[in-house]
Amino acid sequence: MPEAAGARVVTGEEPGSFARSVLARRHPALIRQVRDAFPYPPERQRALDALLEETQHGVIAPLLPGAHDGERWAVWGAPHVGRSWFDVPFLWAESYFYRRLLEAVGYFRPGPWQGIDPFAPFKRAELGGAAVAEELAALDDVAALPLEARDQAVLGGALWGNRADLGFRISAGQPREATDPGDPGTRVVADDSAPFWRHLAESAPTTVHLLADNAGRELIPDLILLDHLLRTGRAGKAVLHVKPYPYFVSDATTSDVVDCLRRITDAPGRAGRIGARLWDALTGGRLTVRTHPFSCAPLPYADMPADLRADLSAAAVTVSKGDLNYRRLVGDRRWPGTAGFAERTAAFPGPLLALRTLKSDVAVGIEASTLDALEGSGEAWRTSGTYAVIQFRP
């Protein structure tokens, strides 16, 4: 794209870069965790070990013959197969890594391991944790707030819920709690929440779409946000887009939606009533879950297929959650931090709200004075998970 001139595509080539740390440390750690989480037979263990060796010391291999999506990946991977994992675009390398991991564990192939989510143990452990119970209990206090404060509370919950990304925690060395949003170390560095709420107030209560990111502690506040929009009449209907198969460790699938709904519904107090409303909204058609193969494609949203584009173009607003969706929205390039969010997302159909906790190098739409302060702080603010953006393009 001409407008991308001068903005380098992110790769893992640069020593010490975030992308390189993901490829060199996060992915090997994940392979080992998946290998240890299941009693995989010898052939599956060998496939995982081979993937580990390839990603660290070999060159990128194609999918095995007969893969259901082999033709698509052959096209997407044509410029990259045979090269080092560290030399190709980071967005493509991450996406292909997860596709290869599913191949290694036999997720798509007929047999006893077909359809078994290799990340399920991690997701379930998080969903059953004490932190989720505490967050659901806090909804009793949120319900007592005035509407404007409730608006900000549920939007903030969806924003900071993105810190629960299991892949991010794996790369940190252990699953630990992220910084509290109330701590001085956390900050929203671009906040378009006010124009977002004005847009909904001025729009007819049509359909709101939400592009989900992670399951568990992130998906629960996403569902609560959708319930709030439906409950307050800002949305007549809501559509939740999830992944058609496991992806990026903790990305949400339909089964994760069901698990989260059960967790909310089984909770006491206000949370249980929200869960019952969400369940009724799903069975009554006011809330719909959708999947699309493009959700797992290593491509920017500018390249989305016509059917998905038509779907999103009819939305009152599309809420995009998380870091991966953000990189696909603006392009996974080393943009100047002051580059315009609206310009970078101009190809996306319809109004757009990005809720994102910063966990990779890409960042746009930040005011120059804020950017100067961040760059001068000495912090790894782009990748620490303690800074966030709420960016709206009407």
UniProtKB/TrEMBL annotation:
Its cofactor is Mn(2+). GO terms for biological process: DNA damage response. Keywords: Hydrolase, Manganese, Metal-binding. GO terms for molecular function: metal ion binding; phosphatase activity. Residues 23-367 form the Damage-control phosphatase ARMT1-like metal-binding domain. Signal peptide: none annotated. The keyword Plastid does not apply. The keyword Metal-binding applies. It catalyses: beta-D-fructose 6-phosphate = dihydroxyacetone + D-glyceraldehyde 3-phosphate; beta-D-fructose 1-phosphate + H2O = D-fructose + phosphate. Belongs to the damage-control phosphatase family. Sugar phosphate phosphatase III subfamily. This is Damage-control phosphatase ARMT1-like metal-binding domain-containing protein. It comes from Actinacidiphila paucisporea.
